[in-house]
Amino acid sequence: MKAAILRRFGVPEFGEFAAPDPGAHPDRVLVEVRAATINAIDRVTAAGEHYLSPTAFPVVTGIEGAGVTADNRRVYFGRPISPFGAMAESTVVPAGFAIPIPDSVDFPIAAVLGNSGMAALMPLTDAALMQPGDNVVVLGGTGVVGRLAIQAARLLGAGTITVVGRDKAALEATVPLGASATVSTTGRTAEQLTAAVREASGGVDVIVDYTWGEPALATLQAGNPGVRLVQVGDRADATVVLPAQLLRSLGASVTGFMPLHHGPEAMIRAYRQLIEWVEGAHLTVDYELVPLADVAAAWERSAVVRHKLVLVP
């Protein structure tokens, strides 16, 4: 079968890979892949910088996608069984990670709503326990996941939704999605950023943080009592110094997030909510279709574009 093959740490290449044998995996689900996303975790895993990085080669890359099972069910799937991955004509996954999708939702959208959708919705619902009326800040909210998080916060009834980022044009593009205010970090000191976020948000209750570093600290300092920061990504910096008195004075909490921390049932529940919003035309999903044969070029581009690249076998 055709696949994106990782022969060493780095960028996968398009080529031939042995297809999974259905008879060898009777307790698994064989999927004919129709769409597979390129995610940040795919890139760091392929670079050998993640605990999920392969220990033997060759392997097929990709953690998720959408397709059709051997018994003709349309599914979103995740966690393919190594050495198989999502970026191929077919793959094999655990039964619990093949979630049915309705006929009304296209395969590329179904694929994007997996890792990206869960990383947008679950920090709000499962980690922060957001309530209607809470003031939400999305740090690094101009990318694929952040833009979904903005929409999720709106649909969950946030009081205000403030988006923080560097690119002013990209920030402005989040207003139609539901952002009530935007704050650029460019040219601002930490103190100025805190003041701007506090003014824009009216005081912060929930922070969905895709950046960490100084923007996270500055935004936390604009928090209301009981502010909850959910740490999802570290685009700005991998470390930050959090003063103990800041956490105690606000009763603040900082929670690290991965979907798996909340269990398969929560993941399925979140995914079904996202699908329901898409079916009701309440959620905008930005993506671009790319032939699987162009995986190497798409790999490099996926790190800089603000929409999801979806590979099509």
Please, could you describe this protein's structure?
With 313 residues, this protein is of the alpha/beta class. It has two domains: 2-113 and 285-312, Quinone Oxidoreductase, Chain A, domain 1 (Alpha-Beta Complex); 116-260, NAD(P)-binding Rossmann-like Domain (Rossmann fold), CATH 3.40.50. 30% of the residues lie in helices and 26% in strands. The protein has ten helices and 16 strands. The strands form three sheets. Strands 3, 5, 6, 7, 8, 15 and 16 form a seven-stranded mixed sheet that branches. A six-stranded parallel sheet has the order 11-10-9-12-13-14, sandwiched between helices. Strand 12, helix 7 and strand 13 form a beta-alpha-beta unit. Helix 6 (190-201) packs across helix 7 (213-220). The N and C termini lie close together (10 Å). The model has no long low-confidence stretch (mean pLDDT 95).
